[in-house]
Amino acid sequence: MSGSQMRPAAHSLVPADTTEDVRTRGAGVSRQVAVLPVGSFEQHGAFLPLATDTLVACAIAREIAAAHPVHLLPPLTISCSHEHAAWPGTVSISSVTLHAVIRDIAASLRRSGVDALVLVNGHGGNYVLGNVVQESSARGERMALFPAPEDWETARVRAGVETSLLTDMHAGEIETSILLHAHPELIRPGYETSDFVADDRRHLLTLGMSAYTDSGVIGRPSLGSAEKGKGLLASLADSFGAYVSLLTSADDSVADTGDA
User: How far is CA 60 from CA 50, 68, 72, in A?
Assistant: First the structure.
């Protein structure tokens, strides 16, 4: 039975599950997998909202939940956006704080019987999420980070996205397409004329985004479309199947070792 048959449709950022929905879904699977969208609150040019990365992560997570029997969690909406601090509205927390929050959530889930967690990351600057997954896996806990670059590349090709992943860095074709499909009411005028390319960003971590773009955009949003957004999400949901198989495997080498 698919996730969409097991829960009410969730049209907002907050899942509509009851505790009985979670209980019923958990009884039908060998191992429960939770999905945590991780977004950000940062500038995305003049036409996409500050919450774009959260909206994207939630759109991916909802698509996953419609195709797979997972426990969908509400999103983390503020993360590590320090490179965007030059623009008004951007808010960040430290990588140490984000690391601690993820670990606490994973530990809480394990105590309630959900011992596998997938972080659906919508913000490229959340580098620490990779460390969280590495460290958790080394302790024998079941955790994964999604989508991987390979998942994005497969989705890009399948959806007909023209811009490369290198060029499509921020508020570009991919993010604009997903929001045109999932939240068209939130897009302001101007994406059609805001293309800007800056492929050499080798000093980004030192200088921040403002050293490479005045508008906050790096990519080609003019190429975005709702059809591409739909295709991107469908491809990512397909790719997620391999993560479910891995995390629900009976292999003892990825068995849970507790909350420590």
Answer: 18, 12, 11
